[in-house]
Design a protein that fits this description.
With 112 residues, this protein is mostly helical. It has a two-stranded antiparallel sheet with strand order 1-2.
Length: 112
């Protein structure tokens, strides 16, 4: 029997935060785990087996009390179905920030 979704998601978060040294890849601030999110660069629904692999994740701030967190800034691409994004925060740019690519993310996801 394979891993449960909750275990896969937890492992995904840990691997992404560790790789990014608990530092938001948008604003550059180091944060506690509670104030961070492991954002899926390519939406989970468009990835094999859900895309919960570090090659498809980027660490972003998700601190409550701020209307436009770094997480919401990168989420704009998904919310708008790919029509809107901030300069430097397109999925291609995020993959570059973490030293990955869509192809690498798909390949890693297929191995889940």
């Amino acid at each position: 029997m394979g891993k449960q979704k909750k275990e896969i998601r937890s492992e995904f978060r840990k691997e992404v935060f560790k790789r990014d040294k608990f530092t938001c890849q948008v604003c550059g601030k180091k944060r506690s785990e509670e104030k961070l999110d492991a954002h899926h660069i390519t939406d989970r629904s468009k990835m094999p087996k859900g895309g919960c692999v570090k090659e498809n994740g980027v660490t972003v701030c998700n601190e409550e009390g701020y209307e436009l967190t770094c997480h919401m800034r990168v989420e704009q691409f998904h919310i708008s179905n790919g029509d809107n994004w901030e300069e430097g925060l397109h999925p291609d740019d995020l993959y570059i920030k973490i030293g990955s690519s869509l192809e690498e993310a798909i390949s890693a996801s297929e191995r889940l």
